[in-house]
Each structure stands twice: as structure tokens, then as C-alpha cells.
Amino acid sequence: MRHSRKDNGFSGLKRYEAENDWLTTIRLPPYAPDLNPVEAVWSLVRRATANTAFDTPDDLDRTLRRKLRRIQLRPRLIDGCLTATGLTLTPPTPH
What we know:
Blueprint: H1 10-19, H2 37-49, H3 57-72, H4 75-83
Helix pairs in contact: 2-3, 2-4
């Protein structure tokens, strides 16, 4: 998909949103790590790999995949990452 510099691909995103009424989009400020659940996930990964020297990029890749898989298998960790943001997965009910 090609995007002009002017729209940065957002017109395609807006069109996709309009065509899929099941999709709820929440716009976040451009830089809001406290509202981004993935920041908490990366924090867990960083803690697990702190002070580790990797011999090769493949070692790093394997370690990151293993740590992310462990997080994936523990839904409570992921729920905690979302809870820390104050955001919810259930959109508000229209009045």
C-alpha cells in the first residue's frame, strides 16, 4: 500500500474503520508511554534480560522470543499491563 506524505496512511485507516463497524479505535496522543500496554510488556522483558550479554543476534532473538512466549502464556501478566494504563478492552456503551 502506498501513502502520500500528506495522509501518512491515515485516510486508508479511516476508510477501514468506516467499513468495519465491529472495530473500535481509540486515538492516543503521539507520545504516551503510560497509556501504551506494550511499554509494560517491554518492561517485563527488559527486567528478565537485564545485564545479559548475548553472543550473537540469534541468541538475543531466541531469548526475546522465549521471554515474550512466557508472558503470552500468562494472561494475568498481560491483563496487568493493560490495567496499568487505565484503558479497557470493552468500549463504553453508547447512550
